[in-house]
Design the sequence.
DNA sequence: TCCGCTCTTGACCATTTGATCAAGAATTAT
DNA sequence: ATAATTCTTGATCAAATGGTCAAGAGCGGA
């Protein structure tokens, strides 16, 4: 009688390493070409691996894509999650915006991956958008609204404020080609960060402090 | 001796009509699926036309895409072009932002088409970005800077202000799936417009009027 | 060491898809 | 009317691509 092993495959060292290599390669390829535009061969090539070998770890192209999204999603919301109701409102928002700008600069590929997914109707992360994301935003919008009603922040729609922060910060990653074309390829990163903080926050200082 | 006709094909009524039908169908398909994701068959089907017939008007898939981009690009910049140095700064910016918000709502497909193209490195419109777009933005940034130096507008980096306006307004078209998921599918359009105007412009009121 | 399990890959397959072609239908000009 | 031109499409092709398979190489525990 054959021994019954745990059928869920334990992650070998090799598995861990190769899955990581694949996800790394996949991020590069998917963020450049999108899901449809990317090919399994491209990802395999970037991961220094034969196509069948890659498909040994992820049986379908879609599996790589989904794993990659999940692998990246959690970290993406961390800055918003860190918004502290007990902190100073302007300082908290400033920290949030700065963190998002730094993420855009440090990891533009992840930003483009999400942008692509959402632009195409978010077929893979619909659940995430309508669940955890919606809930987190509701929670943080309430925090912002609280700051406003207690006079520590000027009034504005909290939801649309969050959208504006997302839009502006991610713009520098998602549309970097356009930004660089218009600016003429200069831009040290820091100046954008300063300008964005200024534009988004100046109007939020409370009237009678 | 065969008669030498003008080899450049004169646009027949049928040609004009069919090219228009194709571009209309192509906008729907490309804006949903991107260049790589879209198929000629899909476009042909939407245009009620056989694939070879479609390829009689545009010989390659890429030709449809480029024609569509050119067909849509010109109108896209009109609101920015209309920014009037002689007008009231806040009113002008308000009109610009409102116009962009309305374009996002009225024609989200065009917005997504561009977003996709730029996200993927803008291979087809690089020239446009580095030429006409860069020039127009430089011109209008100068107008905004003038308003600021003459005290009619608070100081901020004009380029990044324009980027912020683009980012926020187009966000509602490009990421509508996310916006709707987070808001829970309500949203009448007008409230977003008001909120965006408020968030972007409040900080720009001059200090000592 | 040896046996079983994991890992790797060249060859291959089926489908999708951009593009072509030849032949016929419709339209236009004379 | 009729000849020339434009328009339309079924059939077909070649390349790209997601995915499979069988067979062998490598590794780890007894």
Sequence:
């Amino acid at each position: 009688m054959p021994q019954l092993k745990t059928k869920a495959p334990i992650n070998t060292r090799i598995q861990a390493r190769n899955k990581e290599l694949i996800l790394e390669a996949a991020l590069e390829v998917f963020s450049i070409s999108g899901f449809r535009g990317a090919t399994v061969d491209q990802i395999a090539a970037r991961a220094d691996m034969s196509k069948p070998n890659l498909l040994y770890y992820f049986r379908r192209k879609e599996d790589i894509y989904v794993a990659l999204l999940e692998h990246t999603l959690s970290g993406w919301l961390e800055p918003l999650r860190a918004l502290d109701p007990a902190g100073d409102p302007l300082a908290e928002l400033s920290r949030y915006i700065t963190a998002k700008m730094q993420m855009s600069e440090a990891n533009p590929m992840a930003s483009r991956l999400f942008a692509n997914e959402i632009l195409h109707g978010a077929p893979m992360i619909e659940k995430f958008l309508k669940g955890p994301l919606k809930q987190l935003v509701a929670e943080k919008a309430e925090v912002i609204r609280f700051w406003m009603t207690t006079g520590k922040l000027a009034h504005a729609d909290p939801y649309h404020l969050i959208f504006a922060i997302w839009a502006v910060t991610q713009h520098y990653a998602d549309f970097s080609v356009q930004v660089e074309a218009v600016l003429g390829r200069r831009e040290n990163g820091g100046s954008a960060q300063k300008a964005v903080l200024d534009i988004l926050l100046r109007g939020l200082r409370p009237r009678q402090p």
User: Anything to note?
Assistant: Chain A touches chain B through 55 residues (CB under 8 Å). Residues 12, 14, 39-41, 51-52, 55, 59-61 of chain A lie near DNA strand D (CB under 10 Å from a C1'). The two ends of chain A are 78 Å apart (CA to CA).
